[in-house]
Amino acid sequence: MLRSCAARLRPLLVAHGRPGGARLTVRDRGGESTFCSEEVTQKDHALPNPSWSKDLRLLFDQFMKKCEDGSWERLPSYSRHSVQRFQNFTKAFFSGSIPVKEEQISQAKFFPRSFDDGLGFEYAMFWSKDEKRIVCLFQGGLYLQGIPGFLHGGALVTLIDTTLGMHAILAGGAVMTANLSINFKRPMPLCSVGVINTQLDKIEGRKLFVSCNIQSVDEKTIYTEGTGLFIKLEPGKTLV
After folding, report:
1. Whole-prediction pTM
2. How far apart are alpha carbons 76 and 65 in whole angstroms?
3. pLDDT band for position 177 (50/70/90)?
């Protein structure tokens, strides 16, 4: 089945930071910082918790080992955006009225991190600057069921969008999702562990084309393939 989201343009506001310091920041790898960095005291959800399965923990430990020589980097992940970061974003990309109130932002959560531990997605992303790819290790929790016993296809699309979008952010700075094309190959069992591998296919001006697949831990099964088109945002050019 092929799902196209060509009519959708929405901001991809991904919370990430650097290992060793809990920060919320989106950086332009060309050297310009789109959002100011700020210290936060939030829980890093990209670390093991008791809901993680043995397979997920084993994969996580293997990639943490790869991080020791600097060839890979774990990307922290948080559930909330600060009011200050919201203000910086709206100042850069909105003019006039903004879509939500600041008091609402303080209560809002990043969608993929909106469930309690083990009920939604548990995931950790690793970035290789040299290989120019992201590997996302994940397991889908009990609240993500579609047909009985399997993950909902829309839930998988959410994590694909999040992972491809992170790759686009690391390659080009602040972006919006313009198009997602998803090909579901096999249903993925509920609570199983999967691996998302991304690659940057090409850049055309402000357009970034990124693709990925979701495979089983033993690499024998491809569950889903996806491609995404992301548009780099330009500070000073309003979104609405």
Report:
1. 0.80
2. 16
3. very high
